[in-house]
Amino acid sequence: MRGEFALTSYFSERRLARAVLMVVGFGLLFSAGFYRQSLAGESGSFAVRFPAPGGPGTGGSGMGGPMGSGGHDGHEGHGGGAMNRGVTVDLGAQGLPKRVLQPWTVNVRSHQIVNASTKPYTLRFEMVDCPLPVQWDAHDMAWNERTRTLDRPVRPGERVGLNLNFSIPPELRRDPVVYQGGLKILDKETGGTLAFVPIRIKNSRAQSHSSANPASREGH
Amino acid sequence: MTSQSLVQKLPEPQRAERRRILALRLLTFALGLVLFYAPFALLIRLTVRFFHPAGLANVVPDVHRTCLLMPLNWFFQPSMYRNFLNNPLYLVVALLPAVAFLAAPLFCGWLCPAGGVTEFLSRLVPDRWKLDLSGRVEPAAIRYGFLAGYLTLPFLGLSVSCAYCNYSILQRGVQAAFGDLSGVLASWGSSTLISAALWFVVLGVFTRGGRGWCSFICPVGAVQGLAHAVGSRFSFTYKMKLDYAKCSSCEVCAAVCPTGAMTAGESGLQRNYHTCIGCQECRAVCSKGAISYGTGPAEAGAFSPISAGILVSPDGGSD
């Protein structure tokens, strides 16, 4: 019947129908959230403070290195500041849409890269032992794509971001471990390492077989 | 009758007025694109130039700087309010319900390109190819359910604001349109791919009105809809007003309404202020002057089945 919502014909009270629809919307949203959570391995994220403990310019008790896989949307990364905790992306953990439409491009992004020291640093970024083509983006006006540097000092307490998109070439797509290396954050002036984020891209769907993935390939 | 066939039968003054409204809205949507989306992002650039907020000093200006979704996630988390100090543009999301309370969700109906894109592109699709949900499912209730979930998910350590964001999808498309393919060629997550399919295709271009995502899902629209529904009860606020005494129940207003806020039937016109976006298309096409935009009571006159041509009066006349 036009002018009346069809669902209300099943209920004696329009308000009851609306309440049911609200619950449906609520449930759908929660389902969406849990679905997203189930796809946590589809991409990687990290939060890192620099310099690492014992490094130059550390003021106080800054915890250098990555702070776990992190939260999203401005939330602080949770899970502690263990130096060896890095990022793992699993191609086998991709959701169906990703697996069908774009399985061979993966994303690793920072929630925040924080200068936890008392002096400014000009940063340079470098991938370690990475044979994969990488698209870099820092969403920063001072980002230099060619040299992979931020051509401005990062002040104490300031946060910057970095977005990495890895393309998996055909010859590596069947390897159980596609890439194992990491991201180095360097002091552009001295070349010293300020922090290191281990990054691992694996494919849990790949059959285990010997991989031709020498460790000494030049980083991209 | 399809909406397209009803519109084609409109008298010329109404068709001209509708064209004027559509042209005006196209311009304001373009303005919204220029204000919020890279490569322009004029609002962000002006804010940086004149106010120098710390959180915007060096970042590339794009739609993420005026994110409307994350601040909703922070609503019940006072520890996150410090983000407003770094980037005061996050407060835009607080401005929108205030405007909606006073004057209808004008951001949705006139400024948001994410809704405007799908609405205008859906006009190019024949009605027979589109999903028609108007009058079948009440979108406002579902949307409020989404909003409630949105506000409470963070307490479970979950978040959907970035994963299902149609604004960022449009940002990738706008950048690509201006030669920057980095967003389109970057990694797309499964949830983003699903959002793109729902926002642009299923609930967008192939839904009647082109505003399915806006009406059923968008939490920003939900907040504004709630504000407008409350505000419409006051006479000092601006709203689309109905004069039932003038209504002839031609149903053209319901046919052109992009959100299904107008429905028409034997019991008369019904307007749902929870989903009305103040686009004024209904006013433009009304040949009886029964719909207007302004202050005062939302409804006037009593619906008359006789003047609506549904019944015949005892003396044999009908309007």
Quick overview of this protein structure:
The complex is a heterodimer of chains A (220) and B (319). Chain A has 220 residues and is of the alpha+beta class.
Task: For this entry, give a set of tags.
heterodimer, A: 220 residues, alpha+beta, six-stranded mixed sheet, four-stranded mixed sheet, 2 helices, 12 strands, globular, disordered C terminus, B: 319 residues, mainly alpha, two-stranded antiparallel ribbon, 16 helices, 5 strands
What fraction of residues of chain A sit in β-strands?
25-35%
Distance between the termini of chain A: 64 Å
Beta-strand fraction estimate of chain B: under 5%
Q: In DSSP terms, counting alpha (H) and pi (I) runs of 4 or more, how many helices of chain A? A: 2
Along the chain, the helix and strand elements of chain A come as HEEEHEEEEEEEEE
Rg of Cα set of chain B = 21 Å
Low-confidence stretches of chain A: 56-65, 67-84, 209-220
DSSP helix fraction of chain A: 10-25%
Uncertain stretches of 5 or more adjacent residues of chain B = none
> Number of DSSP helices of chain B?
16
Major sheet characteristics of chain A: 6 strands, mixed
Mean pLDDT of chain A: 80
Order of strands, widest sheet of chain B: 4-1-5
Whole-angstrom Rg of chain A:
22 Å
Largest interface: A-B, 55 and 55 residues
What is the terminal-to-terminal distance of chain B?
22 Å
The shape of chain A, in one word, is globular
Mean pLDDT of chain B: 89
Q: Give the structural class of chain B.
A: mainly alpha
**How many β-strand runs of chain B?**
5
Apparent shape of chain B: globular
